[in-house]
Amino acid sequence: MLESAMLLCGAFIGLALLLNLWRLLKGPTLQDRVLALDTMYINAIALLLLLGMHMESPLYFEGALLIAMLGFISTVAVTKYLLRGDIIE
Amino acid sequence: MNTTTEILITSILLLGGTMLLIGSIGLARLPDFYTRLHAPTKATTLGIGSIALASMLDFGLNLDTLTFKEPVIALFLLITAPVTAHMLSKSALHHQLNPVRRTQNQALLERARAQEPPEPSTPQD
């Protein structure tokens, strides 16, 4: 039961990633694209946690933490650039 | 593997997956940037929290290796997602993105863009 639930959850997250990719390619404004990238980072973290559950190895959490931190920092940098025209004034 | 723990972990995992899917559907279908900002920043945070909780319970109850790395990820996203949403909405105000026409109190958009406080509301007779 747990294995099939993991498969179904992985299918849900894959569909969510496809929807985010569609918004990233279509989005009319820059902010839409940045938001779609941030959501894709979050879905990638969820996929890595699912992979760690499936493989029964705790090796993937460091990758998930790295993706979380880099996604936040990159989103903040791009948003500062959109606000000010410069990242560090 | 106990049956009750399996049912608990499965339900939490499916809740997390459906929450992530709902947030991404909202990102793809809502008509406006300010409404599109609401869907991922709330629903995906709840989904990540649920999946991290399910992973921690799976490792702790079924494999007897209880670690506290997953709540760290969930807590980090719980702290940083509102900051990201606030900065994105500030940049949307700065770039003068138009909201959808049904939005109420659109005069507050210009006042927020000029960084003024909202006007004191006059009582309507």
Automatic annotation (TrEMBL), chain A:
Compartment(s) of residence: Cell membrane
Main localization, broad class: membrane
Membrane-crossing residue ranges in chain numbering: 5-22, 34-53, 59-83
Matches recorded under InterPro entries: MrpF/PhaF-like
Protein name: K+/H+ antiporter subunit F
Keyword Cell membrane applies: yes
Highest classification ranks of the organism: Bacteria, Pseudomonadati, Pseudomonadota, Gammaproteobacteria, Oceanospirillales
Pfam family, one: MrpF_PhaF
Similarity comment: Belongs to the CPA3 antiporters (TC 2.A.63) subunit F family.
Keywords from the UniProt entry: Antiport, Cell membrane, Ion transport, Membrane, Transmembrane, Transmembrane helix, Transport
PANTHER family: NA(+)/H(+) ANTIPORTER SUBUNIT F1, NA(+)_H(+) ANTIPORTER SUBUNIT F
Membrane topology: Multi-pass membrane protein
One cellular component term from this protein's GO annotations in UniProt: plasma membrane
Gene Ontology molecular-function annotations: sodium:proton antiporter activity
From TrEMBL, chain B:
TM regions (residue ranges): 12-31, 73-93
Keyword list, A-Z: Membrane, Transmembrane, Transmembrane helix
UniProt cross-references to InterPro entries, sorted A to Z: PhaG_MnhG_YufB (IPR005133)
Region (Disordered): 104-125
Pfam families xref list: PhaG_MnhG_YufB
Coiled coil: none
UniProt keyword Transferase present: no
GO molecular function: sodium:proton antiporter activity
Domain of life: Bacteria
NCBIfam families: CPA3_mnhG_phaG, PRK12674.1-5
Stated name of the protein: Na+/H+ antiporter subunit G
